[in-house]
Design a protein that fits this description.
Layout: E1 15-24, E2 34-35, E3 39-44, E4 50-55, H1 57-66, E5 86-93, E6 97-100, H2 111-114, H3 117-127, H4 137-147, H5 150-154, E7 156-157, E8 167-168, E9 172-179, E10 182-190, E11 213-221, E12 224-232, H6 233-238, H7 243-263, E13 266-268, E14 271-283, H8 294-311, E15 320-327, H9 340-354
Parallel strand pairs: 5-15
Antiparallel strand pairs: 1-12, 1-14, 2-3, 3-4, 4-9, 5-6, 7-8, 9-12, 10-11, 13-14
Helix pairs in contact: 3-4, 7-8
């Protein structure tokens, strides 16, 4: 098996597809993701096979982003990715803290970042953005790559940049589903060791949380659990990056997926999974991952491409763009009380929208 990646096999492929079979780390039961007013997402294939969504695309996207954050939360990346560009912001004023484009919603579109006049000017110039003119997507991609390449992997909607026209979709996505799913019902009780009746309460805290509270619990078993990943190669090629830039994004995507599968599969208290048979490439034909020390070898490719992109002047210098933004507190205006009739009408409208 190769110690490196055969990027030639990706030259004309539209997608890079991965599968990884998983198993509960202990026993047979696991707890899937749940949705408000729905619970577990159970469905059937056309052939009648009972299926279960274990982890949604939205959740896996978040976990892939967190896979390379320092301590899993950031705001900076793990030290192994030193040299990879991103934007960090020191917030002053009302709060004294730090955030970054790696953790902010839609990354560079964060109001703490794009509101900075100096940064916005640099981004607009790099992206060759002009109001009322067609967008230069290759220059836009080069600007994202310059300040934070992760934007091209995880997407960014620059709604806070005038016009809100600049948007790049997520290039890597994934989900986990279970085949042949069956319910495993159980339950428990929250005990109050002092007063099971719940009549004894702390002064000033009169909530109904004191008594013994029985509850039910629904877990699942499955014949097979599989994690799927999809990297949009056609999208990445369309950005017109250099070979080193394209290869960096591919290798970084694979590295994130690998880190997630190796160390990030404790999805919930009752959903602790592990790899069963390694990671398998299902497309394109001929592309393979290193079979031994996969994560270590992918990291070597990533760091090599970081150095190559830096040497070619594709990254900001220094790679970490540092901003300072003063914060203020905006007080919420109190809305005048509505008549009961108006409140009832509003509630009805909200219910219709929810449907």
């Amino acid at each position: 098996m190769p110690d490196t990646l055969n990027f030639q096999t990706l030259k004309s492929a539209a997608r890079l597809l991965l599968e990884a079979e998983l198993r509960p780390i202990q026993g047979d039961r696991f707890q899937p993701t749940g949705f408000a007013d729905l619970g577990a997402a159970v469905y059937e294939r056309a052939d009648g096979t009972r299926m279960l969504l274990v982890e949604s695309a939205q959740s896996v996207a978040n976990r892939l982003e967190a896979a390379c954050l320092e301590g899993g939360v950031g705001p900076g990346p793990i030290k192994e990715l030193d040299g990879l560009p991103y934007v960090t912001v020191k917030l002053t004023g009302v709060t004294e803290t730090e955030t970054s484009s790696l953790v902010e919603a839609h990354r560079l579109n964060s109001p703490y970042i794009i509101s900075n006049d100096g940064f916005q000017k640099r981004f607009v110039e790099k992206a060759k953005y002009a109001k009322d003119k067609p967008l230069d997507w290759k220059s836009i991609a080069a600007a994202f790559f310059h300040f934070d390449p992760n934007c091209l992997l995880h997407g960014a909607f620059m709604a806070n940049l005038e016009g809100g026209r600049v948007r790049v979709p997520r290039a890597i996505s994934g989900f986990i589903e279970a085949e042949g799913a069956r319910e495993a019902a159980s339950g428990g009780v929250k005990n109050n060791p002092i007063d099971p009746t719940g009549t004894l309460r702390a002064e000033g805290f009169d909530e109904d949380v004191y008594s013994n509270v029985p509850y039910h619990r629904m877990e699942f078993t499955a014949r097979r659990i599989v994690a799927y990943f999809n990297l949009d190669l056609a999208l990445l090629r369309g950005y017109g990056l250099s070979d080193a830039g394209f290869e960096l994004l591919v290798a970084l995507s694979l590295y994130k997926a690998c880190r997630f599968l190796e160390a990030g599969l404790r999805l919930r208290t009752a959903c602790d999974l592990a790899l069963a048979n390694g990671i398998r490439v299902t497309a394109p034909a001929g592309f393979q991952l290193p079979i031994e020390k996969t994560e270590e070898k992918l990291l070597k490719i990533v760091t090599d491409r970081i150095q190559a992109c830096s040497a070619a002047g594709l990254f900001a210098k220094p790679p970490v763009t540092q901003l300072v933004v003063k914060t203020v507190r905006k007080e919420k205006k109190k809305e005048p009380a509505k008549p009961p009739e108006a409140a009832a009408t509003d509630q009805g409208d909200e219910n219709e929208d929810d449907e």
